[in-house]
Design goal:
Blueprint: H1 3-16, H2 18-46, H3 48-57, H4 59-93, H5 96-102, H6 107-145, H7 147-161, H8 165-189, H9 196-220, H10 225-253
Helix pairs in contact: 1-6, 2-3, 2-4, 2-6, 3-4, 4-6, 4-8, 6-7, 8-9, 8-10, 9-10
């Protein structure tokens, strides 16, 4: 079985995972409702003469909406943490991993195909539950200050931070890949056990401590913000390489 075929199979499993897709849909709807509530509150405080009266008349609902918004944010964060563990450990729990390896599937191809599918599915799911709230915020900002003014202020922010959108996007992308690789390492080591999440937090803490120690050198040598960000990206790539090696080593020697 080729790596391309394994990758397609992983994507197919994602599209057929109705439980998590329905959960993502519910979270997306709650995020939209929470965003509309937050925008309504922002409008109320910025224009009290026209809209604040609604909250004065329905003050008993305010606490309910606040709790809904808080729990929605927490639920979204937990879901986006749990889902990658689910998609990586699924084949361990249903013994598909053992069957594929017994059938002669190359373990390296299996690993990289699963990681590639996990990255795409996680990014897709993250966009799915956050894209509409992000659009609603953008529409509100554009309505208040105008599109040109918004982009002008956005550009000036990066000017004062002495960095660029490219390096920021690259930093977040490398951080996401690093997180998923650490998750896969924890899951592979414990063969899909639910305790993998605890090992992941341990690995993340260790990785962050090491990166923080080396990143402190950027302050010693007075690096620019862009230079410090590039240094962190390099450290992230090193972390990706290290945990990829750990994952492959364990997967190749595991008795499934």
């Amino acid at each position: 079985m080729t790596g391309k075929l394994i990758f397609k199979m992983e994507i197919f499993k994602f599209l057929r995972d109705k439980t998590y897709l329905i959960t993502a849909g519910v979270i997306a709807i709650l995020n939209i409702l929470g965003t509309l509530f937050l925008l309504s509150m922002i409008t109320a405080f910025s224009d009290p003469y026209n809209t604040n009266s609604y909250w004065q008349e329905h003050s008993e609902l305010l606490g309910v909406f606040v709790l809904l918004f808080v729990f929605t944010c927490i639920g979204t964060s937990l879901f986006l943490i749990i889902y990658p563990f689910h998609i990586i450990s699924m084949d361990y729990k249903n013994n598909v991993m053992a069957m594929m390896i017994a059938a002669g599937v190359n373990r390296r191809k299996l690993f990289f195909s699963k990681i590639g599918a996990s990255i795409i599915c996680t990014i897709g799911l993250t966009i799915g539950v956050t894209i509409i709230p992000a659009i609603l915020f953008f529409i509100k900002i554009a309505q208040e200050v105008g599109i040109q003014e918004f982009f002008s202020q956005f550009s000036s922010l990066f000017y004062y931070l002495d960095t660029s959108v490219f390096w920021l996007i690259l930093y977040f992308f490398v951080s996401l890949i690093n997180t998923l690789i650490i998750m896969s390492a924890a899951t592979i080591i414990l063969k899909g056990s639910n305790l993998s999440i605890l090992l992941y937090f341990g690995f993340s803490l260790l990785s962050n401590i090491i990166v923080s120690i080396f990143t402190s050198t950027s302050f010693i040598y007075n690096m620019t913000p862009t230079g410090a960000m590039i240094f962190q990206i390099i450290m992230g790539l090193i972390s990706i390489g290290a945990f990829t090696a750990i994952s492959l080593r364990n997967l190749e020697t595991q008795n499934l």
